[in-house]
């Protein structure tokens, strides 16, 4: 088996040939990684609309300068999410060394979100009421993909997935399957989300919002803060990338999904779905728990979820050392449909830079999370060869991806 051309199951290896992002750090994956290395916390008061009637008024917003810069990149559209997606796709294809406008290869789009063009729902929000617009505009997936189609020639399938906050990883898995099946040569895999009154109203009703700082795995964590953005991983068969002389950024070693169907909004108390996906990824890649250098956690900062996640990771990855874990939501908030994809872009860069990002807002680790090795706020300079990145969605859905160095060097 050639690890650069085939995976552990003997199928064509899938590599990440490019990445793109729009986030609270601004436009581009470099801005995103810069915020990670500078340990900037990007949550703060919402300025885009009035939240005077809400108890929690913070979010991680795409900054105004980045919004203005979109005008030179992508067409105007009623949904910022649609424009975020198009901009991230353009960057990802440029990073991959691929033209955005060509019919020389089969390019498919696999985009994950929570509720498509969600801000249209905001039209129905009022005091004590929520009315869904009668024209059903919020549910039209073509609206979310329209600006992307204007700047990228899509010659393969265009698929919109809505598995909740596991969306980004689910999109990556769908792209991998399409490449393995020979349906596409290039898969643009994305997660996307836009800040809106609707999502803030939903989290407020669930009493899940933090009014200050998100503190994943901290003893005094109190809730999460919404975020927004889009991120893209451009996937291709390893052999195709090698043939055109491009250097891939990472390899997708395995993907796994599960649903424990325990509760509409809470994971199973034992984290069964997460345990299944973590073990499934390692089994498919034929790796062991001690070969995982970093677990990029879902880590929302909510009182219940983080403890469940910590125990599940410890149970799924037993070995001579505790799993090394950190969450990025203390910096970027919870970007819902975009969260897992943004974290995947950061994981790809962590593999290249040999840096495990820290739990930037961690002050007092929760004793209930003692089974995992929580990375100190400063992060760790250490070899990073294999990363597990996991995401939860409402309804018990879990999606996990396993990323490794593109040269196949995953062993010690």
Automatic annotation (TrEMBL):
Name recorded for this polypeptide: Beta-ketoacyl synthase N-terminal-like domain-containing protein
Xref: PANTHER family: BETA KETOACYL-ACYL CARRIER PROTEIN SYNTHASE, POLYKETIDE SYNTHASE-RELATED
Keyword Transferase attached: yes
Similarity comment: Belongs to the thiolase-like superfamily. Beta-ketoacyl-ACP synthases family.
PROSITE patterns tied to this protein: KS3_1, KS3_2
Keywords linked to the UniProt accession: Transferase
Pfam families, per database record: ketoacyl-synt, Ketoacyl-synt_C
Organism: Plantactinospora sonchi
Domain Ketosynthase family 3 (KS3): from-to ranges: 11-405
